[in-house]
Amino acid sequence: MMPDQIDALIAAHLSWRERFLKFAYTGKNDGWTSKETVGDSSACELGRMLASLNLTHAPGWSRLLAVHRQFHREAKVIYDLADAKKADQVDTALGSSSNEFILSTIELVHLLKELKAYIQSLPVP
Predict the structure, then answer these.
(1) Which of 30, 35, 51, 74 would staple 101 via disulfide (CB 3.0–4.6 Å)?
(2) Domain total for the chain?
């Protein structure tokens, strides 16, 4: 994996998050995710790429996978609230300073940047 691919993964994750937040606040889903897949960390582009990599030796790898799973678990909770038209509960969930959805996004991007730095530090074959 090349470092610029990590940048693309970060961008894909942030794009997914923005589409998700749009759905959470408006209830409008253009078909990019569903109740069945929103909680599945292997269903998004980042999840598919992570599953294809064999970087178990990379520092922070297991934490990266765990945080990504947590992100999708939290997304599922918020999706269900939005799908049930519980806008006040969505606002409360996303507005909390301890919201795991937001905190996991921040940590995920940080861990991906650490992975990029690790890959850049490897000797070029």
Answers:
(1) 74
(2) 1
CATH of residue 27's domain is 1.20.120
Whether residue 33 contacts residue 20, with contact meaning beta carbons closer than 8 Å, is answered with: yes
What is the rounded distance in angstroms from the CA atom of residue 108 to the CA atom of residue 66? 10
* Dist CA 99 CA 73 (whole Å): 12
**CA-based nearest residue to 39, from 13, 83, 69:** 69
The angle subtended at Cα 61 by Cα 21 and Cα 119, nearest 5°, is 100
Q: What is the pTM of this model?
A: 0.88
What is the separation, in whole angstroms, between the first and last Cα of the chain? 12
From first to last of its 125 residues, what are the pLDDT tens digits of the chain? Answer: 677 889 988 999 999 999 998 888 888 877 778 888 999 999 998 999 888 887 888 999 999 999 999 999 999 999 999 988 888 888 888 887 678 888 999 999 999 999 999 989 988 77
